[in-house]
Design brief:
3-stranded antiparallel beta sheet, elongated, 7% strand, Arc Repressor Mutant, subunit A, 472 residues, 6 strands
Amino acid sequence: MNLFSSVPENFFSILASKNKDIYALALDVLYQSLQSDEMTIRKDDYIRTLRDSAAELVMRFDYEGEEDDVDTFLSASLPSKAAFICRRLEETGWIDIEIDPETFEEQIALPSYAIQFLTLIHEIVSDSESQYTSLVHATYSELKLEDEERDEFMYATLLRVYENTRKLRTELVTLGHSIRIYQHRLGQVFSTNKVLSDYFDDYKSRVSDRLYHPLKTFDSVAKFKRHITNILQHWLRDDDIRKQLVQQSLIYSRQKDKREAEGDVIEKINYITDMYEQLNRMVDEIDVKHSEYTKASATKILYLNNTDKTIKGHLETIFKHYGEAALTGEGVSAILNGMVNSISLFEAGYINPDSLTLPIVRRYREEGEPLPIVDFEDVSRMLMQGFLDETRNHFSDARIATFMKMAFGDKDKLHIGDIPLPDYDAFILLILATVHKDDRQSFYDIETSGGKLVSGPYLLPDITFIRRGTPS
């Protein structure tokens, strides 16, 4: 497809010249004239309207550079400049001039492509917000009415529903891209008022309230999708309705045969049903984008209003100014120099006895949690309990019994002085064996004379261990 096979090659040249603002105004005046007199626009009336509505702007029109050879007789008067603008519109293909055979008056005729571009330009620059067109509800209402009537306009209704579906898809794509544009611009804003203005004055009024809110409430795709697809699937399965649609399609386009007409009907119905399945998914993606932009705006406001005086807060302030300077193209060397001059970094350590010897080992103090203050009695009980648990586990009943069996050997009587005490553990086991003599699992009894004796470094009572069952 070649654009300039449909429009003249110099069609856009007036919008790229140094007088582009004046030409843009002239096109807007032409659009307003088209709205007032759709069929007949007299050239003299158009020039007079242009001259009266924008006299000051038209007077600033500069002939230089408009043509290769500017006529020397062109004057700097207002009527002459307005007439020249009209001639340039004709030369670039925006308008055609025809002569009325009865009155010999010059009239302006607009090519179809020019009307489309004029409408587009007006919609872009217009300050008034266009109202949301309830495409989903309109589609459902027309299909429901036509399903009940089943008159000779069924195919016309199908065409409108088909076009509405395509337009709805375009609206959703536009909405999704609009949210992405606002989200991208958020990273280039460094003023709280600008963030609030972009969100509430711009995004909320032009995007959220006008497009997003209707799609989530009264014109919800999820609300009407099932009804729309059920009606269309019924039309597709019913032979009589399908034949009726095919016959009406042949009337609308006589260049098609019956097979092509039936294929056209089936294609349009399948497109609408398939598209409504995709539209539901597109709305879910838009929900995510809308939520992300709203959350990002709130986070940005908190970031710009940062009052944190910690290192993190100061770094955020530095990064904010750095990003603003990078965005505006200003040099960041001043910021970096200021950072270097304002930040003092030093290394801390301490000296211990090992620091005076070679090799030098540098140690750094590590921050730790302070020890909790514990009551002294609790500490005593804890230490005692720990000692008892450790002793109980180390000197078990089985170990005491093994110690005494080894000491007895084959003897029936064992004097305490004959028991070897090579270490402190053996002394403890001897004491515990004396204490445990009355235990059920003990195999010996004790006789004492009341005296004492010395065994190595230990002072012991004069005791004799007698194996139970030994005759007296």
